Amino acid sequence: MDMLLIVKKWLERKDCGKWLMVIDNADDTHVFFGRPALTNTGTSNPDGNLTRYLPECAHGTILITTRNKQTGLRLAQGKGPIEIGKMDEDESSQLLRTMLNGVNVTTAELSILSSRLEHLPLALVQATTFMQENAISASDYLQLLNKSD
Question: Which domain of life does this protein belong to (predicted)?
Fold first, then answer.
């Protein structure tokens, strides 16, 4: 019994209602499209070909995030992916300041931390969550980052 196929068919039914599927970090092309076959037949290895399980219907939407442009282009099926760049230093510092609401942190610490985390929103949010859950300062967190390198 192919459970993924059952879910696909259920989502494609009109009586299923509207739905949103989020596929995050779809970075490995082979997971979605399989590996090229060893023969010259032009076919792909069906193992790992998850695209066959993606529902196609007007009442559902699939949001896919990826850092792999090739995968994004193939998954968008000619619709043109929306490219979202990194945050700049001001944006990432503002996100940190907002997430660290009320925590005493210097502008220099915000700048260093946002740079170390490459201005990536997910990394910034994870860092602030870690700092809050463990009751540590930005400077202590930076020391932990330096030790882990």
Answer: Eukaryota
122 within a domain of the structure (yes/no): yes
Strand partners, 23: 64
Total Cβ atoms within 10 A of residue 124: 23
Residue range 96-115, pLDDT digits in tens? 999 998 778 889 999 999 99
Element at 100 (helix H, strand E): none
Q: What tokens does 70 get?
A: 């090739």
Distance from the first to the final alpha carbon of the chain: 46
Residue 54 belongs to some domain of the structure: yes
66 and 26 in contact (C-beta within 8 Å)? Answer: yes
| Same domain (yes/no): 29, 55 | yes
Query: 66 phi and psi, to 5 degrees?
Result: -160, 155
pTM over 0.70: no
Q: Are 54 and 76 in contact (CB under 8 A)?
A: no
Q: What's the domain count of the chain?
A: 2
The predicted-structure confidence for 69-88, as pLDDT tens digits, reads as follows 889 999 988 787 888 888 99
